[in-house]
Amino acid sequence: MEMSRIWQWLNILVCVLLFVKAEGSGFVPITILEDAESKGAVCLDGSPPAYHFDKGSGEGVNSWIVHLEGGGWCNDVTDCLSRKDTRLGSSKQMDSQVGFYGILNNEQDYNPDFYNWNRIKIRYCDGSSFTGEVEEVDPTNNLHFRGARIFEAVIKDLLAKGMENAENAILSGCSAGGLAAILNCDRFKSMIPSGARVKCVPDAGYFIDAQDVSGTKYIENYYNKVVETHGSAKYLPESCISKYGAGLCFFPQYVVQDIDTPIFVVNAAYDSWQIRNILIPGAADPHGSWQNCRDDISNCTPDQLDAVQGFREEFIKALSGVEKSPSKGMFIDSCYIHCQTEMQESWFKTDAPQLANTTIAKAVGDWFYERKSFQEIDCAFPCNPTCGKPVLNVKAHPEI
Predict the structure, then answer these.
(1) What are the residue numbers of the active site?
(2) Fold for domain 2-387?
(3) What single string gives the DSSP state of each residue in 117-163?
(4) Which of 35, 322, 323, 325 is deepest in the core (most CB within 10 A)?
(5) Nearest 5°: phi and psi at 4?
(6) Secondary structure element (H or E) that encloses residue 317, with its range
């Protein structure tokens, strides 16, 4: 009996390993950038930043994808202390290896345009979407607000490892990393050698300035505090700040028209994180009457669904700065999901979400290589049968 159980577990293990291999890259080891400490480019707890690097090959040896990890933000000392001793605040707590899938996959069958590129995932440990810049460190809490320095230190390290010869480069990211890909897009291009084709692909990072169901602008107040706590104004476009103020310039809808580098926005119009945290944050629903709707919008009452559809309309209006630019692209589906480029199921598979009979991977590849422009906004929920089962992934992208 005992031997039979052992064989069962071995068979399960083999199946899992075969599945991981079939999906592509598997696991990529961590690189701790120890030298960054001397430059003050450190995580919230003062530990050095980190990234994962899977080298390119063949025709992709001079092409680079730099992908920024997500994970929300912290907006005051108490909030930042709560993540200081987690992987979102310290490289000491990060996994030694991570899986590369979706846009980071190294198999042509699963990532046809970028599989042989140099692919990097920068770990997120500053809580400001890589925009923080505060020199002083309060000895009572030892918090370091240095997200902008982390970004610069890692990019310079990659330049020394071959990116100085880049012919193609993409800055991408998911969630707070997607927002970082927008806010740091022009900065990234300025660091890449002139003559390279450089573009940005933010995923689930187009957070909008909208009221919640109680009529309060919870997210606007939250972002104001993030910018103030981290000193982020130094790394936001002055042209935007002069019109709207630094807090609003943390929102893509106000800053995107001031970004010169081509951008392709991947986002769900019903982004599950935004529905849960911008439209229906916990503070706006003290009695939990929206809980079923927050979990899955197919469970919303008719009145609740009207509010959700109103959020979609606000989201589409916020895209005007993207829609009016010929150098920008977008894939805005109607799935109830958050982050789609780093999951194989939504990036490129036979049952992946589609717009205009096109997957996200195909749309991004066509746009990047200028084979075809792509600006598509899906019809209203629940019209798109390719959305399939929703993937909320709330644990990976914490609520605020």
Answers:
(1) 175, 271, 338
(2) Rossmann fold (3.40.50)
(3) SEEEEE---SSSSS--------TTT-----HHHHHHHHHHHHHHTTG
(4) 322
(5) -60, -40
(6) helix 302-318
Report residue 238 as tokens: 């002055």
Strands (DSSP E) found in 197-355 = 197-203, 264-268, 329-333, 354-355
Tokens (6 digits) for 64: 């680079």
Number of neighbours of residue 218 by Cβ within 10 angstroms: 21
CA distance 372 to 229: 42
